[in-house]
Amino acid sequence: MKNMRFINRTFYALLFAVIINYSFAQNILKVEVNKPVAKVSPSMWGVFFEDINFGADGGLYAELVKNRSFEFFDPLMGWSEMQGHDKKGKILIVNVGSKSPQNTRIANITVDAEKGSYGISNEGFRGIGVKKGGQYNFSILAKKPAESGIKIHVELVNSKGVKLGETTIDGFTESWAKYKGSFTSSDTDAKARLNVIFEGKGSIDVDMISLFPNDTWKNRPNGLRTDLVQLLADLKPGFLRFPGGCIVEGRELDTRYQWKKTVGNIENRTPAINRWNTEFKHRATSDYYQSFGLGFYEYFLLSEDIGAEALPILNCGMACQYNTAEVAPMDALDPYVQDAIDLIEFANADTSNKWGKLRAEMGHPAPFNLKFLGVGNEQWDEQYIERYKVFAKALKEKFPQVQLISAAGPDPDGKRFDYAWRELKTLNADLIDEHYYRSPEWFFKNANRYDNYDRKGPKVFAGEYASHGKDTSDPESKNTWLSALSEAAFMTGLERNADVVKLASYAPLLAHVEAWQWRPDMIWFDNLRAVATPNYYVQKLYSTNKGTEVIPALADGKVLAGQDSTYASAVVDKTKGEVIIKFVNASSKPVDYTFKINGKKVTGNTSMQVLSSTDLYKYNTLDDQQLIYPKEIKLGKSKNELKVAIEPSSFNVITIPTRI
Ligand code: AHR
Q1: What residues contact 280, with CB distance under 8 A and at least 6 apart?
Q2: Backbone phi, psi, residue 618, to 5°
Q3: What number does the ligand 1 atom closest to the CA of 247 have?
Q4: The pLDDT of residue 18
Q5: Could you read off the pLDDT of 77-110 as tens digits, one per residue?
């Protein structure tokens, strides 16, 4: 009898152990729909833009002529005298100084012979990208003496010199005026050139020689490259950070980014050398300048177009601390603070205000409703905190509704970072900008970084991050699947902690394959094409599935942040009636997971978007764009408990419809 009891007990104990083990082995993620822990900020997933890697000029800004107003340090950079013409003329660069205080140089062209001609040719930004059947709009500012008989013949030629389109412009007067002409390109070429040929005898002054595709975003003149904006719009970004990045700071204060120089008539915007022109000796880009054709007005307009909150970052009286580290004296900060006040007014004031009026004159009478402003970029130490205090005092007094972003330096930890957080906490800062350019291992390890952050302190803006791994010679090769997968894992932690992390953006955004300084980047392009990286798709899967509230997603009562190389977070979208689970399997083995949805009845069909590759070092290229690309899997009608086979090395977004 005793033996029987012992056998029974042992049997039940073993059975219990098997059941327990079975449930462990089963991998269960319990998702509590009715227990929201935080609201997801509608602006949570955004975009960081900086004019680095030909991001603006030569990239997003659709101007095809480089050095259109002869303002580069070398005034004829990008231009060459045309061979084959009879060279019966010459070009003279004239600095008209105070006659045009902002954009001082013009070109004076003389043609000597009655039937002579003289031509200059522009090489564009690593060539001019043109498409067969596309219309191209040429414009030029010009004036000439009454007796001069010059007309201008404009030719677009392909890389072999074959003519693709042409137009002639005539009728110049003695006063400066803008002249326009259009043509259609008979072929596609990524490396075309623009020839501007002056015919007849006499002289002419010219400036702002420009060529734009007619096909710009929303067909705007002075517009943006459609394919690149479309990729941004497809992200449905919550915000658009601009103009950077280190470009805000300048190598020295004199070359800092100054927003007022980027608004008003484009011909009056003074170009400046781009700080990335010389930043990295091994990636020097001597022809990299900022025309500011994509300036602050165009930026606000773009943000509005793509439904993103504008999030400008302004200089706070400090140049880049990696370069000169110059600071403006504390008693000379006023102009910097005034710039910030004026920018908010440019965005938000009505037209009775000087800056609101300028915005209206530029085409947007309604305010842009700016809600965020960054004070400094990657600043650190006491010199930052004391300057931040001055900005915060002035701006909070005048614009209490605008949330200020403050800097935590370039690193995600360490002395400078801890000091900034300590000080900014005591100042009740709104949002602190954390940057992390780190290894994939760091990203995996830090998926729980924010789980224990102080809930009462300032909120976090994960303002610049990217996983930096291995690369090969292909420009796009640093954007491996491993880097994207590690970001996806890390982002489960951002999402799970949406009560602390309010904004996040990958950086940098854009890079020209022939003119980059920094990689990895989210989107690569050449003069005709653009490719979204695996990192782009990770961002897109988050931003287009952001939900409205974070809900608990627990395995064995714990958040899933690396156990067996798996990571998870979950949100509910209250408006759509959906539970959305982000699940990363970073192991090389498939795994079966059971998702238990508690608290709301599951209705309708479940689907899953999967981004995966067993080759962790795979990346997309301009020639092979979809090696890593999200696929949609229909899981059919499911119950509150669903078992899903998860692929190895995969990022999965599972959408489960529930009752609202
Ligand atoms: O994103 C590239 C650079 O990285 C940014 O300009 C700067 O803020 C950071 O150091």
Answers
A1: 517, 518
A2: -75, 150
A3: 6
A4: 38
A5: 999 999 766 668 999 999 998 666 568 999 999 9
For 233-260, what is the mean pLDDT?
Answer: 97
List, chain by chain if needed, residues with CB within 6 Å of any ligand 1 atom. 50, 52, 244-246, 377-378, 410, 464, 507-508, 518
Q: Where is 594: in which H helix or E strand?
A: strand 591-598
Tokens of 506: 């990958």
CA distance 9 to 352: 87
Specify the residue with its C-alpha closest to ligand 1, atom 8. 245
Rg of the Cα trace of the chain? Answer: 29
- 3-state SS string for 128-177: EEECCCCEEEEEEEEECCCCCCCEEEEEEECCCCCEEEEEEECCCCCCCE
Burial class of residue 39 (count of CB atoms within 10 Å of its CB; 0-12, 13-18, 19+): middle
Task: Quote the pLDDT of residue 305.
Answer: 98
DSSP character string of 611-627: EE-S-TT----SSSTTS
CA torsion sign for 370, 376, 377, 382 is negative
Q: What angle do CA 91, 94, 99 make, to 5 degrees?
A: 145
Give residue 398's pLDDT.
Answer: 98
The DSSP output letter for 283 is G
Residue nearest to atom 5 of ligand 1 (CA): 245
Say whether pLDDT at 274 is over 60.
Answer: yes
Q: Which of 251, 437, 510 best tests ligand 1's pocket when mutated (most atoms within 8 Å of CB)?
A: 437
In the numeric block, which tokens belong to residue 284? 């020097």
Q: Which of 609, 573, 638 is nearest to 33 (CA)?
A: 573
pLDDT at res. 102: 65
Task: Return the residue whose CA atom lies nearest to atom 3 of ligand 1.
Answer: 245
pLDDT given at position 87: 67
Is 298 annotated as catalytic?
Answer: no
Sheet strands (E) in 527-575:
530-532, 549-551, 553-555, 558-559, 566-573
Number of Cβ within 10 Å of residue 561's Cβ equals 23
What single-letter DSSP state applies at residue 647? P
**pLDDT at position 594:** 97
Rounded CA separation 10/4 (Å): 10
Considering only CA atoms, which of 605, 443, 384, 512 is closest in space to residue 66?
512
Single pTM value for the model: 0.95
Write the pLDDT tens digit of every residue in 498-521: 999 999 999 999 999 999 999 999
CA of 378 to the centre of ligand 1 (A): 8
Q: What is the pLDDT of residue 30?
A: 98
What percent of the chain stands above pLDDT 90? 92
The pLDDT of residue 11? 45
Query: Distances from the Cα of 129 to the Cαs of 19, 522, 528, in angstroms?
Result: 65, 21, 6
Report how far residue 35's alpha carbon sits from residue 611's, in angstroms, rounded to the nearest whole number.
Answer: 29
Catalytic residue chosen out of the listed positions 32, 50, 279, 378: 378
Name 151's bridge partners: 199
- Is residue 10 over pLDDT 50? no
Residue 312 CA to ligand 1 center (angstroms) comes to 15
Buried b or exposed e, range 338-351, using 16+ CB within 10 angstroms: ebbbbbbbbbbbee
